Amino acid sequence: MPSTISTPRLALALLLLGCAGTWACASGSRSPGTPSDGPSVASDSFAREAARGRANPEPVGLAPVARKQPKELSAHGDTRIDDYYWMRERANPEVLAYLAEENAYAEGNLSRFADVQEDLFREFVGRIQETDVTVPVTSGPFEYYARTFAGKPYPVYCRRPASAAVDSIEAPAPGEISDAETVLFDVNAMARGSEFFRLGAQVPSEDHAHIAYALDRVGRRIFDVEIKNIERGDIARGITGTSGSMEWSAEGAYLFYVKRDPVTLRAFQVWRHRMNTPAALDELVYEEADETFSCEVTKSRSNEYLMIVSQQTLSTEVRMLRADDPLGAWQVLIPRERGHEYSVEPVRERLYIRTNRDAENFKLVIAPLGAPDQWTTVLRHRSETLFMGFEVFSDHLVATERRGGLVHLVVHPTTMDSGFRSFEIPFEDPAYTVRLTGNEAFDTRRIRYEYSSLRTPPRTIEFDLDQEAPVVLKEAQIGGGFDADEYEAQRIFAEAEDGAQIPLSIVYRKDRGESPGPLLLYGYGSYGNSLDATFRPNVISLLDRGFAYAIAHVRGGQELGRAWYEFGKLEHKRNTFTDFIACAEHLVAEGLTDPGQLYAQGGSAGGLLIGAVANMRPDLFHGLIADVPFVDVVTTMLDETIPLTTFEYDEWGNPNEKLAYRTMLEYSPYDQVSRQPYPNMLVTTGFHDSQVQYWEPAKWVAKLRATMTGDSLLLFDCEMEAGHGGVSGRYDRLRKAARSYGFLVWLQGQEKSASQ
Fold first, then answer.
1. Which of 166, 190, 614, 736 shows a CA-CA span of 20 to 30 A to 577?
2. Region class of 679: left (phi > 0), else alpha (psi between -120 and 50), else beta
């Protein structure tokens, strides 16, 4: 279950590198699913089609059998028996032994197609430019960027003096580091000796003499904060237990940071650290008392103001302080109100406010700095358009909007003498994704964004407002003979059981042929997080083996506006699962695949989706991958000591209320496991996962083993030195991806690429 708190303003680690994983980390009314005492009922046609599907592989070795220790869990007059509740005991030797046994069983079976995994891994590595450099981001008098080197798992972060032009677009050449560059962090050296290592946000002080940075050595998203004197190289340590969110005061004398609750991991306290003093003397400046809220600290684009943002699923409250008055009192801008979500950007004497008050899809208003409740509408609410966010510059702003399921960038003037009218930046593909990135300069006439599609590698583009022309600063070079013209991308629609039209983005090789073939269907559908048609280089290996790849834009995301989210949460959560099933059935009906060649994957809350669908329509799939799945919904949401539980009542419901309890119970994958055949499944988790605790998938797998019928293969891979995002080095991540995709290729029996 992910936190919805955003990352700091200048989180250079993420800003420079982006995410190239195979799935986006993020986590989970009446389910039509399976009653706990009987099998699901599938249509005759699908049952017959499944019967003609591929044979399941014979397992190697005996599958682990977990000990049952019944525990009664009672609520609202209902009693559930949980045989595997004891697996929550993290330090219990029996738990560790069981996980080791599952890992050994998984390895014994996965090793049977080690050659497939190795082929995939080599292909994955062959597609990336191992020695590379990102486009520099200009911040003050310097350009910040990251380098990668062949054979090294982590990046090297550098900076150099900015060129005479404020908006430099010339990137350093890949290769050796020059004398003109300063190495800020060689993460390879920093990670030496660590099984897991993550460098989080990197935030330079305003004078760029120091840089604060966050380190996670476990994978539980609890960061130590350190401060480096860039010129001298000495490092101040001692700040621990943080969320990684931090910002500097204007003169760099103080650093504000956010601490996590050590039990629930909720980001709840903002502290002020004075430079050159021990962390033990740091002062608490704000504590978020409401257990359903978390907080972060951020800074305005103009660098004039610091802000504490407190938020939960349905509400926001922002406090503001001048960055040059770090000892001053924080002022609440708009008091929290249930159902009111907003964000603020102070610019000169005005506040730009994105708000959903009387605007389901949000609108943009402005208000005087001293009167935040006196609104003038700038961008009105539109029923067909989700106003996702904005960035304000000195004389213009860029609105990010979602219409028809696709993201659009619209430029608006903010001053009379800006020299242009509002216009939209055009894009070419039928399905794509675009995001603003690297826009640190406030006084500029250039906009930077990243664009990609299912067949278009990521491009970093700078758009000149005066010329109204885009310039491609960098396009990711994809090796291995990749040619975008060999692939076809489409956007199609499936009809849900209530008539809703569910978008599907799909890509495949043009020479795949017309007969049904293998297809991997990916889904998420929670928290309003939308899955966009972004380029996924690892997917190419599946496409070259005859697979198609599809993304189901199910309800629970916001692809089609805020209502798309509202009708995929709480009492409407069932729609997420039935939408995904409708997408799968549509792909079969269109002849793109059949149940003997259809596979599905999802992670975190997408793992909940996979778990629910496995119970409801196991006949529809030959194989499933559930990454860090949120599957024990009721028990987790009843336990307020588990990280993120109280923060997410408005997403899943509060099971202390009887109706919410019954609704969750009827789709919770763990509670709805029944005696029926299931597809072949690969389940993954991380022992240090802070968002979906390892015991959820561990219990689920144990219960499946004890209950399911048939001869399908069930494998459980628990990474003992990782958290929610998996392993940390890029080569380790590629090997994990090769295991997952290798599992599908092996099940399908197509181990060679289409070009071989």
1. 736
2. beta
